Amino acid sequence: MSDTVRLTCAQALVRYLAALRARDADAESAQPLFGGVFAIFGHGNVAGLGEALYDARHELPTYRAHNEQAMAHTAIAYAKASMRRRMMAVTTSIGPGATNLVTAAALAHVNRLPVLLLPGDVFVSRAPDPVLQQLEDFADGTVSVNDCLRPVSRYFDRIVRPEQLLTALPRAIRALTDPALCGPVTLALPQDVQTEAYDYPGSFFAPREIVFRAPIPTDDELMLALDAIEASQRPVIVAGGGALYARATPELLAFADRHGVPVCETQAGKGAMPWNHPLQLGPAGVCGSTAANAILRDADLVIAVGTRLQDFTTGSNALFRHVPILSINVNTFDTLKGDGVEVIGDAAQVLDDLSFGLEGWAAPDAWTERAREAARAWVDTVSRITGQRHAPPGRRPYDGEVIGAVQRSSTTSAMRDIVVCAAGTLPAELEKLWRTETAGGYHMEYGYSCMGYEIAGGLGVKMAHPDREVIVMVGDGSYLMMNSELATSVMLDAKLIVVLLDNRGYGCINRLQQATGGAPFNNLFDDCVQGRHGAPRVDFAAHARALGAIAEHVADIAGLEAALERARAADRTYLVCIDTDPARTTDDGGAWWEVAVPEVSPRTAVREARAAYETAMADRKTGKPSP
Q: Under which EC number(s) is this enzyme classified (predicted)?
């Protein structure tokens, strides 16, 4: 038996990926690390990588999509829904297909999510230059459009010889599976090199199981953390996405119960603790609950677990600027935020270690009881808001009432539903109002707040969890930006329930515009430049049906609830559209968010907004908690 096997570069790449395995904590046996490859073929990848994928189609499935950015979103959502234990690859041709990946790569980079990008590239030989879709850089002959992916990739490589895979692929897999490095990886594949053969070592393709490692905290770090917690009188935990990716829910619950420390959550961390836990305060920050933000303002220690402390969580660094931060994270970059005590390590392990070291210690009873009372009050507030079945007279329903209807449509197994969203008003409303008892039951892309992620992301979630109901909630603005993977969901028999809230424009940014003193302008259809036919009345249900889904438009909350029953019983993707109010939002909760206001303006409203902005900035400088 030969010690080598002759394969093209593309064949070797595919065989290597297909041989990788990963073991989930809940699985009896290891599964393929890669759940498949999304591909839109063109002249830069169809002959080389396309042929290799065809040969391996039973071991490494290839899925066709309709938009390169969308299929990358789907792959990213698949990895997020798999808690970064499984992932997908994406391949495109060399031109616009490759540049369409840039937005998705940035999204994955910001959210620390793995996706392997395999864009085709121009000829290394340069013999036919310039080929179709080739960008010619007049100052640098080595540049192609794929270089746009460098700043949004955690690891980037251009494979200019087949044997380079021997070093590039292990590096790529390490970046994709390391909890601290995790993010998008780009391997640019020149189309001539894809087809070139090399005698690869047979051992390179031996099945191997990926081990997911996390750094172990030092004793000194743990001692400093224990000292900080024991010295505190009013500690509070902020649970981020890292708590979910570390599967740290049991340890988080045990820590909170044993030591009486209340917990609030970020967008990425929502679901790490069940909504009905007595010490669950709800979300923190700009989209936060009254309970969480009140406790944070009075805290004397914030224990940040697996969060990168972005501005929506911290209220633009004003909500708990006065509070020392104990940061637990696998990523050293993230632990630096807040200038506090750093513990580098896996959330589950560190929480367990700290709880062991805190044997006999608990937060003061008065603080724990205050947190429980605040949590109960917030549960009542959410029930009041989502329990509304009728909009005020003369008004349309708003997001909170729609969320309530969707939540009520769930059966006794409701908490197995997964809600998916990304941008606009809905993230704020869902973070406050959606209830889930299971880790992963809330899937929000809000690190990059990327409009158009919703349906493509929902497809990825469904592919990761085919046995669970996936509910995509999306505004009309995001739907019009990117909806093509609705057809893909029908083609793949990956049923989604899509609830589309039509407020005739960009309602969220319209309100922000006015909150900063601006006049309503260029956001809602009514405030846009229009031709002689006026703004369109989009029939979203008809559009969804044209893509192969079942769809209907409903007039009110009662109609929505009835439609959701039909959607749950349907055998394929089902879209329900409801007209909503662009002005109404949930007033309860929230915190200041820094949005710069013009210093000079002829408009009184802008000048007033600027004065309020300057006051908030001054409060932040003095460390005064934001109202």
A: 3.7.1.22
